[in-house]
Amino acid sequence: MRFDDAIAELDGRQPNRLVPDLDRIRGVADLLDHPERRYPAIHITGTNGKTSTARLAGRMLCSHGLATGVYTSPHLASVTERIALCDEPIAEPEFAETYAHLLPVLEEVEREAADRVTYFETLTALAYLWFADKPVDAGVFEVGMGGTWDATNLVDGRVAVVCEIGLDHPQLGSTVEEVAREKSGIIKPGAVAVVQRQRPEAMAVLEARAAAVGAEVRLEGRDFAAADRELGVGGQRLRIEGLQGEYAGLLLPLHGEHQARNAACAVAACEALLGRDLSPDALLEALGGATSPGRMEVVKRHPLVVLDGAHNPDGAEALAAALGETFVWRRLHLVIGVLRDKDVDGIVGALASRADVGYATASSSDRALEAEAMAAACLRAGVPATPHRSVADALGAAEAAAGENDLIVVTGSLYTVADARRRYVED
Fold this sequence. Notes:
It is a single chain. The chain is α/β, with parallel strands linked by helices. It has 14 helices and 17 strands. Helix 12 links the parallel strand 15 and strand 16.
């Protein structure tokens, strides 16, 4: 099988019908003799910060000598980004070879199932299999959506990480409590739950789940923390108080308080998995080389262009705060495109105080809100905006209008960011 053929077969599994069960992925795992059980895992859920925390935790484990598989979503340019071994994405030939191994198993499950194995279930099974074949010493898995019924929830999640919970996907619930209940399902019996600061209603759900299954809770601010932050060129210097040790003089080339908190969470998760403190030198190496594409990512200067995939109000608020502490600008040009099922007014409202002018657009996703509706949302928030038929057109208009000391921010969706990256990074 060629890589292009594998991608065509995989893409044919979209759009997905979301069904709250694990029957298909369990069927696939059964036929593969459960490759996901062959290594311990850090399993990560939450509404914001999952991908950055997963990438940081993977780097930390790798810097300590563990071959670590990291599974994240979504991707920005290629699906191979989602499945990596110590920062190295799966090679296209290996993806195709593993897919060819997996395909007969998918077809066997589908002969018995009422629904096809979905796009995300297929990718998750491929990650299970590829990691086991390498083999890896540990896995870091980011939940795709939710927790209890997510295809990743078969892993040996000895450490469950819960990043901040808010409202995002309407399929998960209309209240924070409902969303937290779904996400709490990754906390398994006897696990260690590493929990970021939460709203009270979410924390109550997580604590109840942990008590019910006999899991230990390690809470940000009580058991671990990013204790000190000092801003610097290209990032920040941190002191992290972990579960097992204290680590000072850490350089993190990522922007924003939220990324410092994600780093502290990743430290605690790795300590919990290893059962000991971390090597200061290994930790310094892991954080010093960290990247988080599409998250406060600087892709051009003069004018400065920053990409961030904030796609819910909490993420937009974190972005607004990080912009204020990190950059100085004369005028801010907001290039924004949001998906139809998101809280568009909440996202724009969180960014409105920063923006001088908006360029409303629709990403290449078939779920994108129309540019005219996006412009109307900007106007409701007090941001003068014009509609543009594509992200490339919106960026062209923003760059034409921006002065050398201005800031262009591209946000609203990772799909919008992915479209923008093709202009700056992929060429």
